[in-house]
Amino acid sequence: MILAVYKALVFIAENEFADIVVVANIIFTPTHRAQKIIISLIDGSFIDIWLTLDGRYSYHWHSVENFIYRHDNAPHEQWDESTYLSKTLP
Known about the structure:
Blueprint: H1 2-16, E1 21-28, E2 34-41, E3 46-51, E4 57-62, E5 67-72, E6 83-88
């Protein structure tokens, strides 16, 4: 069950990285299924983690300067491989 994986990751984030992690929360869907983790960091940025048991994933870091780093393993139509995005928001 993905909830057990998310709980383990929250524990690791809050205990092994306590010097930079403010809080790590599991976000649930309206039907109470574990959807993702949001980790708030001491600099005001956050990390969004989405995982599935079949191996799909997405990692997203939104910095305080409105810069986004994102990586996932969803095939991209143009390159037929995992995608990586680094973008400054307006």
